[in-house]
Amino acid sequence: LLFSVSNLCGKCRPRDTDLLQPSLNFLYWSLHQTTPCSQQRAVAVLLSNVSLLELLQKVLECTWLWSAPSEPAYLSPEDALLCSGWLLVSSLLLYQHRYNTEVHQTLSLDLTEVLNAVTFRKKKPILLLVSIMQFLRAVLRQNFSSSLLVIVGQNTAQGAMQRQPSSLQDAALHPLATHQVFSLVVSLQNLLVHKDLLLSQAIVACLETLVEYLYGKNQDVALHVASQPWHRFLLFTLLNGGQKSFLQPEVLRLMTLFLRYQSTNIISQKDISQILQEAAEANLAELPEATSHALHLFLCQV
């Protein structure tokens, strides 16, 4: 069935949303809802299908070609297809790396366009932003070195060496440019203010992966990003003023991130004490799973 559906997708055009969107969702869940042994076989089937990968290439490129709907909260059939495409490609990147699966056709994406889709979001629905961030996390975790993906963009190695005044930083962060990193961070900060739960979780996860990537490339840039004073304002914005306001998954994960990179100007000893006090007074058995997991990571970091 997986083989048949993937072949069917390869015969479609990006505009065939009624057929493609549920088909891509089926491929996505086939990868995630199966045993590890079957998962490895499923990845091999999908990555050996050249026509499917060519179709996915076209679908992703439609992200910056299709016009946005007038209402940003409205998820059009085209946007739903884009979400499915980005999530499927993210999963293929993850599992291709995990199983070292042979690649028969590479995907090529312009990094500038991908970052602009988040930075200049132009009324993109929240679910589409979340899907693109999932892709960004996948490529950052693999240091842009996936054999499935070819990254193109303006920040070539030669161009990075010629740029001033941050040329050395650009070379270290390649294929990212320093200005792209700061633009992305500012955009993620601005999106956090919307206080949408799904979006907040995706943003915090993307920030975690981005700072981890930067730390491996240039520690000064990573520590600079983690210690931005604006983060302090963000924390106050996310806190809803409730009795257990600190015990929110996204707040706890941000606090853990700032602790990990010793951003003492963002999180103080008083903040840590407040979280510990709220945790001590809470009924831990009744906390949501996401909160419990985030609290566990926070306590381990402390």
UniProtKB/TrEMBL annotation:
<dbReference type="InterPro" id="IPR052133">
    <property type="entry name" value="Immune_Signaling-Apoptosis_Reg"/>
</dbReference>
<dbReference type="GO" id="GO:0007127">
    <property type="term" value="P:meiosis I"/>
</dbReference>
<protein>
    <submittedName>
        <fullName>MEI1 protein</fullName>
    </submittedName>
</protein>
